[in-house]
Amino acid sequence: MTIHSTFPDLSRFPITRRWPASDPTVLQLYSLATPNGVKVSIALEELGIAYEAHRVTLAPEDVKSPEFLSLNPNNKIPAILDPDGPDGTPITLFESGAILIYLAEKSGKLLGKSASQKYEVLKWLMFQMGGIGPMFGQLGYFHRYAGSEIEDPRPRERYIAEAKRLLNVLDTQLADRDWIAGDYSIADIAIGPWLEGLNRVYKVGDLVGMADFKHVTAYLDRFNARPAVQRGWAVPANPDA
Predict the structure, then answer these.
(1) Alpha helical stretches, state H, 65-132
(2) Which domain CATH number covers 125?
């Protein structure tokens, strides 16, 4: 008789050599507390999925290490290794939007209660992935990071204007609802951290007139009040904090 171990062997995944799994039976998260990174930790907290978090910094020695590139060849956080994949075998994923969809489908939550609701959620998730994330991120780069040294004002002005346009789209959508796609969903988990990031990370809330978008600011207050959101922002723990 063959006895199957209840502990998956994750040693074939190079990522575990640099960031070993203390509990190989639970989902392994490789991330950092950035607007993109906390999407996944917040989702895991909201869904109650057991996981173990590993802090992967944006330094080349982390995200460009052979071990991390074996999990995400695009050298970006977050990424996951789930020993309990859909076919009973481990699965790896990168790209935060793909991970959110996977977690929602795995748990049967936060993706709408019908097919039409599901696509409403996915529509706004893609709005974040294709618009809010790239545009807010570029604004942060040209305002606070290395791009701020560039004297040409046009890049900065372009991303300020685009951020304001996107905030207006959200403000209009939120005029008659608490959550972006109806019920609370992974679309909110994708969008909320980027709104918070305008103030917390990039320090551009005043620059884009965030306070003028009343529905957005009320929405962000509701989002930030959720205990799972508060816990998710603290994952993975920063040893220097």
Answers:
(1) 66-71, 96-107, 115-127
(2) 1.20.1050.10
Domain, as residue range, for 22: 15-109
In terms of C-beta density within 10 A (0-12 exposed, 13-18 middle, 19 or more buried), how is residue 12 classed?
exposed
Q: Give 183-216 pLDDT, tens digit per residue.
A: 999 999 999 999 999 999 999 999 999 999 999 9
- Alpha carbons 193 and 140: distance in angstroms, whole number: 14
Take residue 234 and report the two structure tokens written for it: 């603290």
The pLDDT tens digits of the residues spanning 152-182 come to 888 889 999 999 999 999 999 999 999 999 9
Q: How many domains does the chain have?
A: 2
pLDDT digits (tens, 9 = 90+) for 38-60: 999 999 999 999 999 999 999 99
Whether residues 152 and 196 share a domain: the answer is: yes
Please return the burial class of 194, using the count of CB atoms within 10 Å of its CB with bins 0-12, 13-18 and 19+.
Answer: buried
CB 198 within 8 A of CB 226: no
For residue 32, tell me if it sits in a domain: yes
Residue with tokens 């930030």: 224
Q: Are residues 24 and 82 in the same domain?
A: yes
pTM: 0.94
- Asked if residue 205 and residue 135 are part of one domain, the reply reads yes
With CA atoms as reference, report the closest residue to 209 among 156, 174, 165, 148.
165
Number of H helices, E strands in the chain: 11, 4
Choice between 118 and 153, residue whose per-residue pLDDT is larger: 118
